[in-house]
Design brief:
Elements lengths: L1 H12 L2 E11 L38 H13 L3 E2 L2 E2 L2 E4 L9 E4 L6 E10 L2 E14 L3 E6 L2 E9 L6 E7 L6 H17 L12 E10 L1 H6 L6 E6 L2 H20 L7 E6 L4 E7 L9 E2 L6 E2 L2 H10 L4 H12 L3 H7 L3 H15 L4 H26 L10 H12 L5 H14 L3 H8 L7 H14 L1 H8 L5 H12 L6 H12 L2
Parallel strand pairs: 12-13
Antiparallel strand pairs: 1-10, 1-11, 2-6, 3-16, 4-5, 4-15, 6-7, 7-10, 8-9, 11-12, 13-14
Helix pairs in contact: 2-6, 3-5, 7-8, 8-10, 9-10, 9-11, 10-11, 11-12, 14-16, 14-17, 15-16, 16-17
The structure holds zinc ion (ZN).
C-alpha cells in the first residue's frame, strides 16, 4: 500500500504538458482570396465586399495567384514537402460570420506537409515539426460591443470575409509555455523575413490557437497522449504563455483529484486570467469536408517551385550562421541581430558603409564593436523611446562612422555615447556634433602632459602610494586626468605618459 502511494505521487510530480499550435496568418495581398475586393485594414465596415465574399448565390470563386505563391513560399521556407497536386475543400458549418455556410479551405491535400522550425531553448536547438501548411479564406468579424458599450445584439463586418488566411499547424512537439513563446517568435520572424505577412497580432493578421493535454510518465513512456483541450482567443504572445500555464495547472489539478479532463474548446479570458468553456469539441467529421467543385486542383510544376525557392531571401537561421562565420560575431550577438530582419539589415548596411572608411583588414575588427553598439546602445535607446529600428532616426551609416571614430580612438566610448544621444534627437552627422561641441579626443602629447603635471601636483597621496609600490594607485590618477580633460584625453596616452612621469 505504502509503495503504491509513493508511485502515484511520483507520477503526479511528473506530469508532462503536450502542446500543439495552430497559427493563422493573413497573407500580404492587395485583393482577397477568391474575389478582387481590397484587403486594407481599418476600412468602414462592409465597404470592401462583393457578391463573392458575402456568399451570394450564383457566383464563382477565382483563386488569388499571389496568395497561392506566398503560401508555397512559406511552406518551402518551413522545409515542407509540397504536394504537387493540391486541392481546396469545403468545410461546412453554420455560423453568422460565414455567409456561404462553408469555408473554402484545404483538407486532404494541403500545399505543404512535414516541415520543421528550429527553435532555441536556453541555448539549445529544438526542432518543432510542422504537420501542415494550408490556405483558406478568413471569415467575417462579429462585433458584440462598440467601444466600451456592450450591445444586446451582434453586428457583422464582412470586410474580413474572404481574406487569404494561411494555417500553419505543428505536431504536438511543444512541452512548455516557454517553448510555445519561442516557436511563435521564430515563426513570426521567419514570416516577416520572407515578407508574406505583417504578422500584426493587434490587427489580427497573426492569430494562434493552442491544443494542450498533460500526461504522466507512464503514458509518456508508451507514447500515449492525454485528453486535450483547445484554447482560442489568444490575442498576444503573453496571452498564449499565460493561458498555457493556466491550463496545464488546471488539467493537472483535475487529474490529481481523480477526475477526467473533458475534451472541449476553451476561451482565454485575459482580464480574469483563466480559461472558460466555449463548446465541447466537434470532431473533424462534423465539418463534412468535400472537394470544392468550383475550383480546379492545383498542379505545381518543378519550374514554379524552383522559381519561388529562388525568390526566398536568406532565412534567419542561415543569416545567423553567416554572421558568425563572416563577421566572427558571438552566437549571442548574431542571434540578437538576426531576431528581426530590420535589425540584421541595419547591421549589414552599417558594416558595408564602414568599408569605405576603414582599411580592408580593419573591417573585420569593426564588425564586432559595431554589433555591440547596435545591440546595446542603439537598441537600448530605441526601447527607451518605444521605437523600432525601422523608425530609427540614426542611420546605419552615421552610427558606423561614430563607431569607426571610437575604433580609431578619435573619441572615447563615453563621448561617443553622448554624441549618439544627440544623433537620436537630431539625426545629425556625428562629425558635425563632435566639431560643434568640441568633443574630439585629445591625442596631443603636450596637452596631455600638461594635464598630467597638474594632476600630479594636486594628488600627492596617490602619487606617493604609486611610487611606494602600490600599482593600483595609478587608476585614481588616470581617472583624475580624464576628468580634467572632460573625458576627451586619449586613455592609452594618459596611461603611458603618466607611468613615464612617475618613473615606471
Ligand atoms: Zn469580395
Amino acid at each position: 500500500m505504502r509503495n503504491k502511494t509513493l508511485n502515484m505521487d511520483t507520477k503526479i510530480a511528473e506530469y508532462q504538458p503536450v502542446i500543439g499550435l495552430e497559427v493563422h496568418v493573413q497573407l500580404k495581398t492587395n485583393s482577397k482570396m477568391f474575389c478582387s475586393c481590397p484587403t486594407v485594414f481599418g476600412a468602414i465596415p462592409n465597404t470592401n465586399i462583393c457578391p463573392v465574399c458575402t456568399g451570394q448565390p450564383g457566383v464563382l470563386p477565382v483563386a488569388n495567384r499571389k496568395a497561392v505563391e506566398l503560401s508555397i513560399k512559406t511552406a518551402l521556407a518551413l522545409g515542407c514537402t509540397i504536394n504537387n497536386l493540391s486541392i481546396f475543400a469545403r468545410k461546412n458549418y453554420f455560423y453568422p460570420d460565414l455567409p456561404k455556410n462553408y469555408q473554402i479551405s484545404q483538407y486532404e491535400s494541403p500545399f505543404g506537409m512535414d516541415g520543421v522550425l528550429e527553435i532555441d531553448i536556453h541555448g539549445k536547438a529544438k526542432k518543432i515539426r510542422i504537420k501542415r501548411v494550408h490556405l483558406e479564406e478568413d471569415t467575417g468579424k462579429l462585433l458584440h460591443s462598440i467601444g466600451s458599450t456592450e450591445l444586446d445584439y451582434s453586428l457583422i463586418d464582412f470586410n474580413r470575409s474572404g481574406l487569404p488566411l494561411l494555417e500553419i499547424v505543428t505536431e504536438p512537439d511543444i512541452t512548455s509555455p516557454e517553448e510555445a513563446w519561442s516557436y511563435l517568435t521564430g515563426l513570426r520572424n521567419l514570416l516577416r523575413y520572407i515578407d508574406v505577412s505583417d504578422c500584426d497580432m493587434e490587427k489580427g493578421s497573426f492569430r494562434c490557437d493552442a491544443n494542450i493535454s498533460v500526461r504522466d510518465s507512464a503514458m509518456a513512456d508508451t507514447g500515449k497522449l492525454g485528453i486535450k483541450t483547445e484554447i482560442k482567443n489568444l490575442n498576444s504572445f503573453k496571452a498564449v504563455k499565460d493561458a498555457l500555464g493556466y491550463e496545464i495547472n488546471r488539467q493537472v489539478k483535475q487529474l490529481k483529484a481523480g477526475k477526467e479532463v473533458v475534451q472541449e474548446t476553451l476561451l482565454w479570458n485575459d482580464r480574469q486570467g483563466r480559461t472558460e468553456s466555449m463548446r465541447t469539441k466537434e470532431s473533424a467529421h462534423d465539418y463534412r469536408y468535400f472537394p470544392e467543385p468550383d475550383l480546379p486542383p492545383f498542379e505545381f510544376s518543378g519550374n514554379l517551385l524552383e522559381k519561388l525557392k529562388g525568390e526566398l531571401p536568406e532565412l534567419p537561421h542561415q543569416r545567423k550562421k553567416r554572421f558568425i562565420s563572416e563577421y566572427l560575431l558571438t552566437d549571442y550577438d548574431a542571434d540578437v541581430l538576426t531576431s528581426a530582419k530590420g535589425l540584421a539589415d541595419y547591421f549589414e548596411s552599417g558594416v558595408n558603409a564602414a568599408k569605405d572608411s576603414v582599411p580592408p583588414d580593419a573591417s573585420l575588427k569593426f564588425a564586432k564593436p559595431f554589433a555591440n553598439w547596435v545591440n546595446t546602445e542603439l537598441t537600448g535607446r530605441l526601447n527607451a523611446r518605444g521605437q523600432t529600428i525601422e523608425g530609427c532616426s540614426v542611420s546605419a551609416g552615421y552610427l558606423a562612422r561614430l563607431v569607426v571614430m571610437v575604433c580609431e580612438e578619435k573619441i572615447s566610448n563615453n563621448i561617443a555615447k553622448q554624441v549618439l544621444d544627440d544623433m537620436f534627437e537630431t539625426g545629425r552627422k556625428p562629425e558635425e556634433i563632435i566639431r560643434e561641441k568640441g568633443l574630439t579626443q585629445i591625442s596631443d602629447e603636450k596637452e596631455i602632459s600638461g594635464l598630467i603635471d597638474k594632476v600630479i601636483e594636486e594628488n600627492p597621496i596617490p602619487v606617493e602610494e604609486y611610487r611606494g609600490g602600490k600599482k593600483q594607485a595609478l587608476g585614481a590618477l588616470v581617472g583624475a586626468v580624464m576628468k580634467k580633460s572632460g573625458g576627451r584625453a586619449n586613455p592609452q596616452m594618459v596611461n603611458r605618459i603618466l607611468r613615464t612621469k612617475l618613473g615606471g
